[in-house]
Write a structure and sequence with these properties.
Blueprint: E1 7-15, E2 21-24, E3 32-34, E4 38-41, E5 47-49, E6 54-64, E7 69-75, H1 80-83, H2 87-101, H3 107-121, E8 125-129
Antiparallel strand pairs: 1-6, 1-8, 2-6, 3-4, 4-5, 6-7
Pfam families: Rep_fac-A_C
Protein name: DDIAS protein
Domain Replication factor A C-terminal: 9-95
């Protein structure tokens, strides 16, 4: 799962999603289903209390090298240096911000975060392990 087959130097053309963190199973890293009290992993069957769910980064990008366009998804803690915090802490900051600002609609915090991620990644060149 984590073995790199090759390296690709490419520039980021666009961000493909606006949700950069997801609740992840600690066993298989699949997306958890959450309700107000519990989480459940549909892949491996792991369950627990919703407040104990772990979060992981997932950044979907459209990238281009000198010849081709690619859709690529970057997962996990390799994104910590770019965001400056773990996915767990970013999720906590987003929840706290929405709670403090009284936002019932999370569009404004999502929009600001997307703009920051676009400024950090779009037009920049990276080496991706694929």
């Amino acid at each position: 799962m984590n073995s790199v087959q090759g390296l690709l130097a490419a520039s980021v053309i666009s961000i493909q999603n606006s949700c950069f963190v997801y609740p992840a199973c600690q066993n298989c890293f699949s997306r958890l289903t959450l309700d107000s009290r519990r989480f459940n992993c549909l892949k491996c069957g792991c369950t627990g209390e919703a407040k104990d769910a772990s979060y992981r980064y997932r950044l979907s990008l459209k990238i281009a090298d000198t010849n081709d366009l690619f859709d690529i998804t970057v997962f996990g803690s390799c994104l910590d240096p770019f965001f400056g915090v773990t996915a767990e802490n970013l999720q906590r900051y987003i929840q706290d911000f929405n709670q403090l600002s009284g936002e019932a609609n999370t569009e404004s915090s999502t929009r600001v975060l997307v703009q920051a991620v676009e400024a950090c990644f779009i037009g920049k060149r990276f080496i991706f392990g694929v």
